Amino acid sequence: MNGDFWRRSNMNQRNISYEFSNIKSLRVQRIRRMGDMLVLLSLQLFLLIMFVEFSKYYPDADASDLHTSSHPVFGGFDPNLNTYRKYNSMFQDIHVMVFLGFGFLMAFLKKYGYSSIGFNFFLAAILVQWAILCRGFFHLSNLKIPISVESLVEADIAVASVLISMGVLLGQTTLLQLIIMGIIEIAVYQCNFYVGDEILKIADAGASIFVHTFGAYFGLAASFALSRFKRKNDIESDKSLESSNYTSDLFAMIGTIFLWIYWPSFNSAELSGDDQHRAIINTYLSLAASCATAFAFSAILTPDTKFDMVHVQNSTLAGGVAIGASVNMMIQPYGAIFLGMLAGALSVIGYNYITPWIDRNLHIHDTCGVHNLHGMPGVLAALVSAILAAIATESQYHTGLYDIFPARAPTIPSFNQDVYRHIQGDGRTAMQQAGYQILALIMTVVVAIVTGFLTGISNKTLCFHYSFL
Amino acid sequence: MNGDFWRRSNMNQRNISYEFSNIKSLRVQRIRRMGDMLVLLSLQLFLLIMFVEFSKYYPDADASDLHTSSHPVFGGFDPNLNTYRKYNSMFQDIHVMVFLGFGFLMAFLKKYGYSSIGFNFFLAAILVQWAILCRGFFHLSNLKIPISVESLVEADIAVASVLISMGVLLGQTTLLQLIIMGIIEIAVYQCNFYVGDEILKIADAGASIFVHTFGAYFGLAASFALSRFKRKNDIESDKSLESSNYTSDLFAMIGTIFLWIYWPSFNSAELSGDDQHRAIINTYLSLAASCATAFAFSAILTPDTKFDMVHVQNSTLAGGVAIGASVNMMIQPYGAIFLGMLAGALSVIGYNYITPWIDRNLHIHDTCGVHNLHGMPGVLAALVSAILAAIATESQYHTGLYDIFPARAPTIPSFNQDVYRHIQGDGRTAMQQAGYQILALIMTVVVAIVTGFLTGISNKTLCFHYSFL
Amino acid sequence: MNGDFWRRSNMNQRNISYEFSNIKSLRVQRIRRMGDMLVLLSLQLFLLIMFVEFSKYYPDADASDLHTSSHPVFGGFDPNLNTYRKYNSMFQDIHVMVFLGFGFLMAFLKKYGYSSIGFNFFLAAILVQWAILCRGFFHLSNLKIPISVESLVEADIAVASVLISMGVLLGQTTLLQLIIMGIIEIAVYQCNFYVGDEILKIADAGASIFVHTFGAYFGLAASFALSRFKRKNDIESDKSLESSNYTSDLFAMIGTIFLWIYWPSFNSAELSGDDQHRAIINTYLSLAASCATAFAFSAILTPDTKFDMVHVQNSTLAGGVAIGASVNMMIQPYGAIFLGMLAGALSVIGYNYITPWIDRNLHIHDTCGVHNLHGMPGVLAALVSAILAAIATESQYHTGLYDIFPARAPTIPSFNQDVYRHIQGDGRTAMQQAGYQILALIMTVVVAIVTGFLTGISNKTLCFHYSFL
């Protein structure tokens, strides 16, 4: 059948997985394979046991919950309970981005087509289960994790951070190393997200800080750690494998365009009301502007040719990252366009000057140029969100201000006529909120770099690098 | 223009369509082509006439129905009438699965890329029209078939069973044989579905029994019948054409991933309330677990290589089939994960051991390994649904029980306070319902095998095998 | 990195962009590149300034608008204000069609894979911003353009007309020429749309007249103008580059199938109530019939082979265009099927006989055969809409008649009991409305041809053909 081709295509990859295959007998390989499979199966089995112990349906999905029986028309029927209806079409859009978009975006390497798409598929499938658990531990109800469509959306978004880190490391690690890294990264991600979202109470509706910035710097730090252990010629041989061809670049465009198309859903899925509407408009405009600007900068910075497919595949998306943290704020349509232009230009400049500099001087190898698509635009997003937080006034946002920045609500609970509910917050000022936005950025970058570096080190020192896969 | 390539690519296919092209003159070929086209056109014309005679808009889509005028705000406006709104985003998801997912999944054969996608497209487009008619004949209102978006969803789902059978036969038949087979299969499908759904009253929300099991065994039986007529060397030459290459395997991954992504919509489109919410969660978890388990088993069972692309493309999806019949039951999140693991493992084992055994001993050639993705997981789904039906209690489901198993409602009509409507059923016990689930499985397998075999025989004995296409 | 391949693949394209590269020094090229980039950047900057001056959020997306605060439950909450919810899933579907569907559909040329997808991406991203502005100038409120999700949907649809024209010109122009053409075309499109929609008040829910017919004839006229300036051997060398290969044809099928799948959303996005439901059904049936008929006609008209991939990629979609203008009328299910059959057959005949004739006799080169997919089926759509308008009666449509044909409402404002609002129109008769439908078709074709020709001429005479890109 067609399994041969996987073998053939990955023949080269084995060279870079730090195995000395030629001096090892087939028997040793078989033992290793056996070991690897047992690790993978144990992991899935562990997840199953955790779900047995901790999972239950969210009341809205539970038949035994009387309030949500399927067809009640009167008495107790609350349309807002039907969260799945609200989430479903956006959930599917995000699902496309995570499982198809990221996978095909990384398929531009002609030698790693199967690996990019296959590893992305496997990694995401196993880690969404882990992400549901990690997130759930912060919100246990009677020692159980209530699972709803919202949990699935949040799991997809959490896994995106690992797939971003994978973009840095593609071709530099074995699959098993990626999985171990993903397990750790998801756990750290959920802690960082919990602190940022529920303790620091910052606004990051499109997850530019918690997902994009975090994933990028985690991956870069892990790559830095891994490069400590590499011999010079290994690194060179890695890079020689990193070329694309005409067909692989077209496959990558499938990933790019689906990410570009569904990004408005990614940035607005967890919002509602005018926040959600505004988020869709801002993301759309920012992406359009970053696409146009990336093309223009690519034309000038690529000598002797027209456009560089690397810019077309990546920098066109930078606007989606850069708008993420302020996507539901009153940035105005022109603000979104300006931010998209800035991000597109920054990203192309990053690919042309910053990534080669980092590679040469810091010896951090960034296979997909994640720093230019997720790293720098993510930091930009955080800075912009701080500026907008600093100028946000009650007269501009009315009570919507407390939806976006809950900590700015007054400390004394008051019944609000407009939204017919009690509002209570920490009484923060605009400048304080801006400070917290910056604080969350610093925390995220520091946590990502420290834990990413440690994960990279442990991956090298533990036995996982002897794995076959 | 680019039509040449179709010719070139299918040059080989002609060899396997039981034509002795080399001894036939061009004139004979032209007559045959003429005949084929007349058959295709007559078929479309026949469908047109049937629609003239029998079709009308469902009241909700009919301007002449006063209750559903477009903007009534008061008096008679019932949001539940807007069925198209409820269905639309899920309808589009299923549309992607049927027209893109199935077609590209079969594109892994490097010699049949056009045929897989093109035949899938043509077959599905002509058969959805036929499926609307066949389904409608069971629900005539004033001798007319009322067509709504729900009809379109049901037609898409019905056609999936033919596309599954096509997966068994790909490369073994001519296009015209596939169409004739599809016409018969849709008619039989609708009868079997009617008996199972409205007479036996079984639960099969994700259509694992009616679509997946039915389509797989129908196709396998037809393949068995066709192999009776083949000479030994024909079969060998067929198989030699069945190889993939790097690019064709990447195209197939587009199909796999879109099927994987939109499966929650497939399994939940016709449900509502907490049933629908639960179905989305169960399908998501089952698919994630089957994907991870399929990779793990692929690693151990593929000697000398890492993963087998056949497993990655197919077995990762087995969880969606296996959960289908019990998708709206209280299987619990861990139950969905366990079932997905079971299905993923079963499917990989099937590809490695069972399909070769069937091929060798029963002489049934299964081109895409449909038995491992749709056949066995479909049977597993039916068995699991029987177990869950046997343990379903009123205290766990409340009145939701009668939505899932309408026959379990008491025979005496009673007004239910929770759902504000009268409920009446057949007063079945839990064990009786379990028995009916098994009965529907046995009926479906027997009907599929008998009619599939007869269709295969008739395809060989009638003149269709003289067709050019 | 992988930018080389863009250069290599477009090496040929440069030959046809009327540059005499071999006699020009690198210095001249660098100056030109600089100039081009400045044009592109100035354009994006100009758009930014226009947005600063004219854009604001639509009230429903504006936090400062009290009526639309995010969680008001009582008092003033109007679910109909949540336009983004209504539009969102269809908006994403249309987004897929415009950015992915059109781009990949044009990827069938093996030499222009990057150009088709990349230019489509760039052009669409820059022009959606321009389309929002042009459309907005007709609906200023306090000298500002209120931007909602509806604006985004309308911008996507407007840009489709430019992408259709690009299909005619692909490989015949430089990127900069396409952008200049697009800027002009969008402005003309919005004027023509305004006159047709708000002055002539015609029905064209699926934009068959305003988008498909307009885009096709605009492009054909521009191609005619460009061919005046070409030397004979240039044209021949252009054509020699227009071949597809096996892989490029499979990429094109991705575009075809996504267009086919999401067309029901394209044709129904701006409708509501039973109009929208009917539009989904009609589009689905028309597309199914045109797909089946295109395959049948392709089989008979393609000598010595089975099917022509050009027909499979394009003519299968003709039903979506042909139903567009009458998609919300009571055409009946069989009417939709009949129209789809007609369009499919017409389109295949066009590819086989009409396009070669036009090329030979009128010297209009139509790279993608746009005349057969958008031109003729668009004219057919307009004629059918006139016939249906002529036979539309109040007894068949009730008050829905005034939603579809607002000018047919009586001139004296009357309070309508069914829809609880005042209705006022121009008191047109059915035959008058039919006449206006034809008038709008004639206006659109004339405007498209005249402005397209002038655009082509100006593109040749202005300095843009010295551009590098």
Automatic annotation (TrEMBL), chains A, B, C:
Positions of the Ammonium transporter AmtB-like domain: 89-458
One Gene Ontology cellular component annotation held by this UniProt entry: plasma membrane
Protein name listed in UniProt: Ammonium transporter Rh type B
Lineage: Eukaryota, Metazoa, Ecdysozoa, Arthropoda, Hexapoda
Membrane topology per record: Multi-pass membrane protein
Transmembrane residue ranges: 34-52, 90-109, 121-140, 207-226, 246-263, 283-301, 334-354, 374-392, 438-457
Family of this protein: Belongs to the ammonium transporter (TC 2.A.49) family. Rh subfamily.
A molecular function (GO) term: ammonium channel activity
One of the Pfam families matching this protein, by short name: Ammonium_transp
Gene3D superfamilies per record: Ammonium transporter AmtB like domains
Protein location: Membrane
Keyword annotations: Membrane, Transmembrane, Transmembrane helix
